[in-house]
Amino acid sequence: MTPDMSFTHLIASASLLAQIVLVLLLMASVLSWALIFAKRGLLKRIGDAADSFEDKFWSGGNLADLYESVRRDKGLDGVSAIFSAGYEEYTRQQTSSRLDPDDAIAAIQRQMRVAQVREVERVENGLAMLATIGSVSPYVGLFGTVWGIMHAFIGIGQMQNASLAVVAPGIAEALIATAMGLVAAIPAYIAYNFFTRGVERLENRYAMFSDEMIGIVERSLRHSPRS
Q1: pLDDT per residue over 28-55, tens digit each?
Q2: 3-state class (DSSP) for residue 134
Q3: Are 73 and 200 in contact, with CB atoms under 8 Å apart?
Q4: Measured between alpha carbons, how far is 20 from 5 in angstroms, rounded to an integer?
Q5: 141-194 tens-digit pLDDT
Q6: Rounded distance between C-alpha atoms, residue 87 and residue 90, angstroms
Q7: Mapped to the 3 state alphabet, what secondary structure does 192-206 carry?
């Protein structure tokens, strides 16, 4: 009698531990794709928002008007969040009774740096999970394969029959775990590298914007009359 070699039958006839491994790998794959789509959407949204904000920033308008526009739109993420943090500190320093340009610039830089780190951490959220799935899934799949092959050989020993018809289902069942491990790992690993480069570019963009804004407020503070 020809054994049933369909995918569903092999999984249904697998040992309990092998089935648990397959379920874990399936969950890891679903989680990684959810993170991939969510992270891709987030990076695109932040990039588009940064383009729009920087167009307004470099249009030559008043920074106070731009700040009020950002606050009304509630678009405080990415570059706009860094700008808002710096501008708020800038206005506080301007209203200070003892305005020292060097101290004011240092305070503004600190606030913008804190906002920049916060924004980068928000974008990086989830990348560690992708890295974990990409690195661990192959080993989980390998464990399921080893267990499945061991289980198959135990069955062969009990049946005392090593024909291909007897061996094939057990080996195929075991190799499914390896395939599932790769299915979960490869997209997660590729996405992790892709998003890591995207975050690095975004971080450099934040740093460049911070430097440009510090230059603007520095000129303003050094040319303003001291109290």
Answers
A1: 999 999 999 999 999 999 988 889 888 8
A2: helix
A3: no
A4: 20
A5: 888 888 777 777 776 666 665 555 556 666 777 778 888 899 999 999 999 999
A6: 5
A7: HHHHHHHHHHHHHHH
